[in-house]
Amino acid sequence: MSQRQVLQVFEQYQKARTQFVQTVAELATRPQNIETLQNAGVMSLLRPLLLDVVPTIQQTAVLALGRLANYNDDLAEAVVKGGILPQLVYSLVEQNRFYKKAAAFVLRAVGKHSPQLAQAIVDCGALDTLVVCLEDFDPGVREAAAWAFSYIARHNAELSQAVVDAGAVPLLVLCIQEPEIALKGIAASALSDIAKHSPELAQTVVDVGAIAHLAQMILNPDAKLKRQVLSALSQIAKHSVNMAEMVVEAEIFPVVLTCLKDKDDYVKKNASTLIREIAKHTPELSQLIVNAGGVAAVIDCIASCKGNIRLPGIMMLGYVAAHSENLAMAVIISKGVPMLSVCLSEEPEDHIKAAATWALGQIGRHTPEHARAVVVTNTLPVLLSLYMSTESSEDLQIKSKKALKNILQQCTYLPALEPLLYDAPPNILKHVVGQFSKVLPHDCKARRLFVTSGGLKKIQEIKAEPGSLLQEYINSINSCYPEEIVRYYSPGYSDTLLQRVDSYQPLTH
Amino acid sequence: MATLARLQARSTSMGQQYYYRNSVVDVFRKKENDAAVKIQSWFRGCQVRAYIRHLHTVATTIQKWWRGYLGRQRYQLIVKLAYYTMKMNLYNAMAVRIQRRWRGYKIRKYCFNYYYLKEYLKAVSETNDAVRDFRIMNSCTLFRCREALEEFAEMKDREEKKADLEREEKKRDYQARKTHYLLSTKQIPGIYNSPFRKDPDPWELRLQKAKPLTHRRPKVKQTHSVSLSDWLACTSARSFPRSEILPPIDRKPCQGPFRPVAEVLEQRYRPLEPTLRVADPLDGLKEARREVQRQEWARNVNDNMFLPFSSYHKNKKYIPTLHLSSKYGSDSYGRQHFRDENPKRWICDKDFQTVLPSFDLFSKYGKLYSKAGQIV
């Protein structure tokens, strides 16, 4: 045998391995293949290939492994149980950038499934090596490492704390300042994931000076980056008044309002989430947003999208209106109420309806003026039907009942109240009749209208327990009218009249 | 003495008379006594009653005066109290009047200034209008970073306009390429080049500039390659540039000993193909082998026994080889090299390293040019 023939054997073997690994990696991209691969024992076959002589095979094996682990948590657990992680972490420092990228991909894929798996990654000391990767020269490696950090920190506060303890936050902030858009976006999402758990974690992010850099990027044309930046800012702002003020001081208003007009839906959603998180803290912050025209922008944003993207905007309107009556009035003059009632009738999902209901209740509860503004858009019947409907969820029922009560207790606009007399259940009817009993004694025209529209008749038909609040209200309404009219409208009056006819003896001479 | 004698003479009669008289009186004595008692008792009763009545009238008089005194005192107190409360009520009412005025004034001035509120709401709605329409933002004075926003709005406008224009241009270009056959030739004027007009239609000029659409070719299915560079977004731009449009066919070949353009381009943008030697480290095989030996789990690729499919071999008994079945343990046949037999004679304690020389011929076959310019 010549030397060449011997070498041919090796070459053939190497080619076969390369082909195997590449095919597996390619097959792993399709979800329908995963089960077959798993049953064929792909894990145990890939494991030795991680130690292959040829770097390309190693890298491709790691890539295939990452794709498998990305697919579901069973496979990710198999990766952890196979003891592959320490090996990966060990070689993460040693190998070239392609390998680093692939290894960080595996870590990310494993860590994304559950807190336990992420904890396993933390336990094998991956964070320190990932921090080293964050300082790598290649942006791809940094991106992969930041992504892995993001997925680990996303689960809970302990894991985030571990990430912070590893010293990743300053490096992530450095990554934000890089020119690569993708790297910026992923670093921002990692910061968002770290900051979302607790005020302390958010404070560490703030202390590194992330807000200024994040705020600069709001006007960036890239939609994905904008999403992450806005989400990071909102996660920082949500914890306390101080942090919200710091975010506001970074001069995000009114720049952030332009994001509400973006083409991308998630940019809109994250922007309105950010505004909501700022608005919910204090009346002053809400006032600031109102002064900057934020309410109108949010309302326009609600009008321009559908479904869950509306939710933060709706809640923002509720928070702003809840703070004070002036702010609620600002919401009203920004034409927020018609938009909310449109949401109430258009949206199929209960939780969005519940949010809109709550927001309406917050707007209408301040003064009769506010209640009137809410009521003229014909919201009361909708709210009542939501409350009465058996299909609506319990939360929605409670919310709509509260909103009805809040609005009714302030409402003096009788034409809107009258339909409720006919189809409201007793516990709502109480408030309706109460409003009538408050208004009618002082309003002559309303008294007249109340009789002609048949309201008085309906009042007489209500069966109230003697001594109850409802009965008191009815009595006070009745006392506004002459006795004959009250008697005329009370049920059974015709019978008594006929009886009188029967018993009457005409005077005959 | 005579009297004494007379008396003595009469004493008996006296005694008798006494007795007689006593006995006469005795009949009335008790009655009279009773009557006397009665009279006395009546009189005394009257007397005592009169005294008691007297005492009563006295007591009443005292009580009357005393109670009158007390009553007057209490009355004084009540009057004082009533006067006091009346006074306080008046004061309170007056205070409320003052407070009402003052509070109304204060609230109207500082908290719920109606005109201020109206103005504020007007300002808010103006701001809202401005936010709803970027173009009126100039009129809005509330914004601090107005310039940035204006710039942004302008930039956005410009971008949109530019994109629109580009899209239009591309569409028209495509249309021109598609209808290129309407171009006039030297002999026959096209429909856009009417001979009765002075100038040709602008569309004609466009057609002249446009390149006709080539025939559509069936798409060659691309082999999906798994390269590390295409799964992370930021590295996708790092591959070599590919010429999308093939070089024109009808170009005349250059004179001289030049290779065809396509070939040159292909060679120029050929992806990097490292030789086996460059791609792999020199002693990679050895290293990996050692790694494999060290880690036991790597050897157990599959724990299940590999069984044949058919049932033909099912009842066949597995007969181990001689080497394995020996009860003295397997010998080292084929595992030890002759050099391992007496390691004492080694000069250095390192093992020999197998270095496989690479074959340049293999790795460069079909990629080299001979001196005659032919591909070998």
- Alpha-beta classification of chain B: mainly alpha
Distance between the termini of chain A: 154 Å
The stretches of 5 or more residues of chain A where confidence is low (pLDDT under 50) are none
Quantity of strands of chain B, as a count: 0
**Mean pLDDT reading of chain B:** 77
Percent strand of chain B: under 5%
Q: Tell me which oligomeric state these chains represent.
A: heterodimer
CATH-level-2 architecture of the domain at 13-166 in chain A: Alpha Horseshoe
Radius of gyration of chain A (CA) equals 34 Å
Number of strands of chain A: 0
- What is the average per-residue confidence, as pLDDT of chain A, rounded to a whole number? 89
Spans where pLDDT lies below 50 across 5 or more residues of chain B: 135-144, 223-241
Helix and strand run of chain B: HHHHHHHHHH
Rg estimate of chain B, integer Å: 73 Å
Shape verdict of chain A: elongated
Number of helices of chain A: 35
Task: Give the termini separation of chain B.
Answer: 223 Å
Descriptive overview:
The complex is a heterodimer of chains A (509) and B (376). Chain A is mainly alpha-helical and 509 residues long. Chain A has 35 helices and no strands. Among the domains of chain A are: 13-166, Leucine-rich Repeat Variant (Alpha Horseshoe), CATH 1.25.10.10; 433-498, no CATH class. Chain A starts with a helix and ends in a 6-residue tail after the last helix. The mean pLDDT of chain A is 89. With 376 residues, chain B is mainly alpha-helical. Helices cover 55% and strands 0% of the residues of chain B. Mean pLDDT of chain B is 77; it is low at 135-144 and 223-241. At the A-B interface, helix 1, helix 3, helix 4, helix 7 and helix 10 of A face helix 2, helix 3 and helix 7 of B. Chain A: Interacts with SPAG16 and SPAG17. Chain A: It holds the Pfam family Arm. Chain A: It is found in: Cell projection, Cilium, Flagellum; Cytoplasm, Cytoskeleton, Cilium axoneme.
